[in-house]
Specification:
Helix content is 62%, strand content 8%. The protein has 277 residues and is α/β, with parallel strands linked by helices.
Length: 277
Amino acid sequence: MPRAVRRFVLLLLIAALLAACATSPTGRRQLMLVSEDSAIASSAQAYVQEVGKLKQEGKLSDDRALIKRVNDISGRLVAQAVEMRPDSADWKWSVAVIDDPETVNAWCMAGGRMAIYTGLIEQLEPSDDEIAQVMGHEIGHALANHTAEKMSVAMASSIGVLAVGIAADNKGAAMAGATAAAALAVTMPNSRAAETEADRIGIELAAKAGYDPDAAVTLWRKMNALPGGQPPQFLSTHPNPANREKALAALGPEMEPYYRADTARPSRPVQTVTALN
């Protein structure tokens, strides 16, 4: 490829990356090559497939008391999520209760499709306040558009590989190096920033929904005390445990007025996906 053409293509790729920026609810700048609508559509399809598979395998819970507990907590959190981001009122909010005693996990896809595993309940024995911190954190990912951000990071990595290949007019080692550089320079910092951001949003949602912000710290201590000393899968990209615990504790006083406020704690309907429906 002629040098002038390579230079022009490189400039186009760089311009695309620089232009593809957005701002999260906490004011953090995000790389956004994929629209939120695209992320929601992809997540909806993935959720239907995953739930269908779980139902076929008999891995959706039929524990009525647990289902009601999760639904009640989720409904109060979603009400606050809609207050924070009014456009999320149009999302298809739902929560699957997955019967998997070995897995300590929870998640929320773009568009408000959530799941919590019975392993989290059985192994941590959390209070309602602690469950609210888990689910609030996961909802925070959705409100901050982290699914689209992760998809954008993956796309940016591909663009980086392409750019290096074009610049070097070579393949092999140069392209492998670009992949490693993209993962190190883009993926890890954004991943940690996104997790910290979800903590910040989640603890605020929970406090405004009437759940004790101090539970964020007690929950983390329970998680860190799990056998093996490793945090659950859904917290694997966080900074080290000591730093995270300090950060959560520091947020407590700021959130306390929301928690103590003498105000109604509204709830919004959340579809519960279980073995009973």
